[in-house]
Amino acid sequence: MMKQVVDYQGIQVGVLIPRDGSLAFMAVKYDVIELDGRSFSSATEAREAVRNHVAQRMDLTRRTGFSSERTFASLHLQAGRAKEIAC
């Protein structure tokens, strides 16, 4: 089995690496750093964990009105602006 990239809304957030019969998640974005090193039984399970994790972070940001970090929403908007500039 080879490494697999994990995307969230078109943004690469991590890599799954085979380890001891499971898949270890290596975060490449700060927003999912809490999942770094966690083992999953499948890529589907890892992607679901990423979706749930990001949803919880975004919900917390909405409820508190404060975020000390950039969220995926802001990263997604920045990616969209970069595509507009490149065109």
Structure, explained:
With about 90 residues, the protein is α+β, with helices and mostly antiparallel strands. The chain has one domain (about 5-85). The protein is built from 2 helices and 4 strands, in the order ββββαα. The chain has a 4-stranded antiparallel beta sheet with strand order 1-2-3-4, covered by helices on one side. A hairpin with a 2-residue loop joins β1 (about 5-10) and β2. The protein is elongated. The chain starts with a strand and ends with a helix.
Taking the alpha carbons of the first and last residues, their distance comes to 37 Å
**Helix/strand structural class:** alpha+beta
- Specify the overall morphology: elongated
Would you list the SSEs in sequence order as H and E?
Answer: EEEEHH
The whole-number mean of residue pLDDT values reads 79
Low-confidence stretches: 77-87
Query: Largest sheet at a glance?
Result: 4 strands, antiparallel
Furnish the topology, listing elements before pairings:
Layout: E1 4-8, E2 11-19, E3 22-27, E4 39-40, H1 43-64, H2 72-86
Concise overview:
Helix content is 43%, strand content 25%.
Supply the key terms.
single chain, 87 residues, four-stranded antiparallel β-sheet, 43% helix, elongated, disordered C terminus
